[in-house]
Amino acid sequence: MQDPDVSLSSPVISCLRTRLRSKFPNIRFSKSKLRLFLETIEKRTDLPKSPLHNSEFDPFNTLPIANSACVEQTVLYYIQDWSPKFGPAFAFEDHPNPFLSLLWPFALQSDIYFESIIALSRAALLADRGESANADKAFIRHRGNVITKLQARLRSPDQCIQDSTILAASVLGTIEYILGDHAAAAAHTMGLKHMIKLRGGMSQNTPLERQLRAVVFVYESLWSSLPASVPTTEQSEQSPIYLKHPFTPEVCQILSNIPPGFCDVALTGVLSLQTIRLLSDLTATTAQLNGPKYLTIDASLEHRIQTTLEILHSPLIWRVTETERNLCHGLVVYCYLLRLIHFHEVVTGYCGLVLQSFAESALRRTPTLTAFGPKCHVWTLMMVVELLKYAQRPTAQWIPLLQQAVVRWPEFRQWDELEGYLKTFFWDESMGTLSRLAYDEAAVTQEAFHEVHP
């Protein structure tokens, strides 16, 4: 059936593809993506016509901020990579990818939100290339512009509660989290909550409002693992407490209650007292979650998991030894697995980007710090693999991650041996089943590869 909209006819698509190819010869532009791009930007009826065809504005000359080669490239990255990767996780009726159908048209009318998207996409694009955003002049400029505009809006009672302000704040928080600045992400989280409070809550009367509420909900769910407030100077100067032998009776009692794998690592002195206590609390929570099946799970346990995540994301935790930092990565992922298994919370949206960062970090690290460090690293890797596989939108990254682990560490080469290591840490029947399925699938994929490429 022929499309009745002449603006989206094949000659127009072909014309747009030709122009884009001339600008970006190394990027492929499918017809479906070009059509979606045109449908999206067509919503802006207040913009001048473009010589591209007689009913559309030129997407590269009528943006809300000053145009540049960097902006053009980043817009294409957002349209072709970022939105298809994360947008469908927020889908609802009539909007299979609201990042393109709702948030993108809105961004084209808001300079602050548009530039925040440019900054976020620039950071993600550089991460894909293995480059640091903190050393990129374009990223620094765009993020600085967003922060300046946001500060000006926060001084206005009306502007500080606008949709564009809230969305820009959420994007800035995401950027800081991706860059590893948890204190800055916590500040944006606190500001976001305050703006919503001043606004009187979030309504859902229109598709855009519904999408805004969904973004805020996911943002709160994921980044609520950050501290509720920015740490004070006294708190930020607190240092982890590392123990020396002989341990006190209190510490020995705590160690006797945690899984033996963690206990072995703690006995080497590389885990702080704060982390040991955290492991003890999480052990008690896990025991209750794995209680008799006929018992209803106490709703307060979900809150306890949330509290654990808050501690794990505090600045104190990240000023620790490398083994301890690696363990904290595993504990963060383990908490999300508990939510997935016991409370059926799906892993969506930006959480996938954080997991991707964990996976890449795990692949780069060589765990040879202590006799028990590698075992802890094995457990952390398996937690990351499991959550990557069973997220709402699974990523293929988990398969090469597990296959590379098999090549690098002998502990991964036989499932029985691997399971023996895993059982000495946080482990239960449900996780064992999920992990075995992931392990077998990766093994089959690897065998098929060797059959094709002997």
Structure description:
- This is Transcription factor domain-containing protein.
- It comes from Exophiala viscosa.
- With 454 residues, the protein is an all-alpha fold.
- The protein folds into two domains: 63-223, no CATH class; 247-452, no CATH class.
- The chain has helices at 10-23, 31-41, 69-86, 98-107, 111-129, 137-154, 163-179, 182-199, 207-223, 233-236, 249-257, 260-267, 273-289, 300-312, 322-343, 351-364, 373-390, 398-408, 415-422, 429-452.
- The longest helix has 24 residues, at 429-452.
- It is globular, with a radius of gyration of 24 Å.
- Residues 1-9, 44-61, 224-237, 367-372 and 448-454 have low confidence and may be disordered.
Protein traits:
454 residues; 20 helices; globular; Fun_TF; disordered N terminus; mainly alpha; Transcription factor domain-containing protein
